[in-house]
Every structure is written in structure tokens, then in C-alpha cells.
Amino acid sequence: MNDSRSASSSSADSASIATADQNVGRSRRSSDGSQTLGSEPSRRWRDVFWLGIFVIHLVGLGFVLAVLGLNRFKKTDRLKIDRYMDRVLENRKELTETYWPFYALAGGVGAVLGWTWLLLLGSQANYMMKVSVHILTTYLAVISVLCFWGEQFFWGVAFAIGAALQFFYVISVIERLPFTMLVLQKAAKMVWTLPEVRRVSYAFMVVMLLWMGLWSFGAAGVVASSIDDGGRWWLLVQCCASIQVLSVSLFWTGAVLCNTVHVIVSGMVFLVLIHGGREASSVPPNSLIKSLRYAVTTSLGSICYGSLFTAAIRTLRWEIRGIRSKIGNNECLLCCVDFLFHLVETLVRFFNKYAYVQIAVYGKSFNHSARDAWELFQSTGVEALVAYDCSGAVLLMGTLLGGLITGTCSGVWTWTKWSDRVIMVGSTAMLMGMVLVGLAMVVVESAVTSIYICYAEDPLLIHRWDAEFFNQMSETLHQRLQYRSARAREVLTHSRFDPHMHETLPI
User: Fold this and answer.
1) What is the DSSP-derived secondary structure letter of residue 277?
2) CA nearest 94: which of 61, 123, 69?
3) Cα 454 from chain centroid (whole Å)
4) How confident is the model over 251-286, as pLDDT tens digits?
5) Most buried among 103, 296, 483, 488, using CB within 10 Å?
6) How far apart are the C-alpha atoms of 71 and 223, rounded to whole Å?
7) What CA–CA distance (Å, rounded) separates 203 from 210?
């Protein structure tokens, strides 16, 4: 017993010494980064191919949306498109403006929720995040009941499964929520001292609303030209596929705008931390303008590229981590989950949200930034802290809740007029609300990522900004490193003395 304690203490001491040695290197890199930021280096265009794909998609889809909306605007089949589908479609005599007001309501509700969240960022942000965590499960369950009541059994089951997954995820990370809320509170405090980045988020919401005006115009035209469900399921699938294509496009466009804000805010927060405060005389002039210019020019290709994959991989990683921590001793299931876990961890190396900080500060390509950020975390041990924190999941819960509220408002109004269109209008309205609320949430997420990058580069930057928060982060990191060392020793000891383990280990 004493030997195990001494081994644990020696392991912790060696980890502390290694961390201290790494801090010297990080401090040196930090000073180099400061010089780089101050000298404003020339930047090259990155990931231009993906920028081209995004622009082509935006222009092409914009044209298609305009055509679909105009075809039924004030007159059915204005552009004579339906004649190409006379043999398979039985179009209703409905117009684009029949459904457009429902999407206008979704845009208005989503924008109000996003703007309200930003207005309350300084005083009520922590409370609102806690509400999001605890309310989302109940809200999903209520929507599931409403779907069953409206005889939408598929969607009722889908929302019930979503409520169950949300409940089990919160249970699996309940012990991590206090530290997560602390990080989010400090990030919100940082953003509150930078009113210019909140104004940027407001401006991007307006840009997103303009795009949603065109998007919803085309989506309303598609819904108006859809058919009855009776007996023609494959045609219904065809119409739903059109809506799904529009939804994927809206998601990508919204993700690009959110991550553009992410890059702008990350650059500003990194500058504030590395120069010791917002009022420091060493902060370069017109920092926001420079960060904005880089984000919408040389780094936009990297943002478009990362926006395709990052969110999905992050969500999958959160779910697998939650399941993995609650499996127990089921070796077969643990083996399957471990395979998925290592696969997702490999993808995270090339697609992670911390890449946007590197893009903002150094102007690297997306994959280069993601790989450098992850290697920095792993080489310094901060990855253990990042894995323990679930602030991204908490912010996503708030985004989902905002989207569900938006979708519910539009869905209820649609149900009072056309009950067979509730799912189509409600689901796309929910996505609109998620994008708009996400533009508000991303300012805090950007501050969180910048805090972790700065802590990995040089912990003294966080100490200079908030000494108490630095002590709490360092204590949590020390505990996580001790926990990982203990788990590693437990696995090695178990595999050494358990003969059945040797029989099941792959060669």
C-alpha cells in the first residue's frame, strides 16, 4: 500500500517537474508569438480550394432558391417548372407567401433569443447556461409527447431518444459541470470587457438574417409545391430530400459565419491575454479591424474547410466519451467503444475548434493549425484539462434549446393552419434558430478556446489575467494528470496479473 502511494507521489512529482520544464519552453514560444502578432506579418491565402467550393455553392444555391421561390410567388407555377414533373407530382395550389411568414417568425424569434443572450452575457450568462443544461431534456421530452399526440410517431420516437441521450450525457458528466461552469463564467467575463466583439456578433446575425431571407424564400417555395402523403411515399422522400439539401446548405453557411466570428473573437482575446489586459498600451491599434480583415480574406478558406467537419466530430467525441466513462467491466463493449474512441481522437487531431485560434493569430491552414494546437496540448499535458472540460457541449445545449424554441413557435403556428406541414416547417425553422443563437454562443466558446491555448503556450498569461482562476485550472490539471497516471498503472497491473486478459489481448 505504501509502495503504491510512493509510486503515485513520485509520478505526480515527475509530472509537475515535466510541466515546469515545459513552461519555460512555452514562455519562450509565447514571447515569440507576441512579436509575431505585434509585427503584423504578411499572410498568404489558405485552403483556397474550399473557399472556391463554398462560393460556388453559395452562388449556385442562391440562384436555385430564387427560382424555387419565384415559381410560386403570387402565382402558381410562374416559371413553368411543374410541367417537367406533371407525371409524378400533384402540386397544390399554394404559394410561396403561404409559408414564408412562418420562416419570418423563425428568423425573428432566433434573432431575439441570440440578441437577448448577448445582452445578458455579463450578468446572467452563467445562470442561463445552467438552465440550458437542465431544461433541454425536459423540453425534448415535451416535444416528443406533442409529436405522439399529433400522430407523428417517427419524430416522437426521435425526440424521445434525443431526450434520453441528453439525460444520460448530463449524468455521465455531472462531476465535470462545476469546473465547466467556472471556465464559462471566466470566458463570459472576458467577452464582456470586449464590447466590440459583441457588436461583431450582432453584425453577423444581420448578415445571416439576410441570407435566411433568401433561403426561406426558396424553402417556402419547395414546401408549397410538395404533395400529399397519400400513397406516394417515394415522392414524399424526394421532397424531404430537397429540404435536407437546403438544410445542409444552411448549416454550412451558418457554421462558416459562426466560425468567422470565432476567428475574430479568438484573435482579440488572445491579444488581450498576451498583452496583459484590454487597456495595455502594447495592444496593437485597430486590432479588431485587422482580425476581421484576416477572417474574411486570407483565412476564409480555412474557415470554410473546417466548418464542414468540426462540429459533427466534436459532437461524436462528446457522446463517445460519455458512454466510455460509464461502460464498466464489459470488455466486449469496451473494445468496440475504444475502437470508435481512437478513431474519433485521430479525426480530432485534424479537425478541432482550437485550430481557429491558430488561424486567427498565425494565419496557418486549417489542418496545420488543428495539428499544431493538438500537439501543443498533448506535449504540455493540457489535453487532459481540455478533455475534462465540457463547455462546448454546454454551449451546444443552449444552441439546441434556442433552436427548439424557435422551431416550436413556427411549428405551432403552422399546425393551426396546415397540420401536415408541421414537421417540414418546424424542423427547418429549428435549424434557423440554432444558427442565429449559435452566433451569440460562439463568442464565449471563442474565449474558452483562447484561454486554453494561452494556458498551454504560457500559464503565466492566465496568472497575470486572473490569479485565482489560474490556481483553479492548475489544481484541476494536476488532479487529471494524477487520475490518468493511476488509471494507466491500474491497467498495466491488471493486464500483468490477469491471465484472461493476456488471452483476449490482440497480437
Assistant:
1) S
2) 69
3) 20
4) 888 889 999 999 999 988 988 888 776 666 667 777
5) 103
6) 12
7) 11
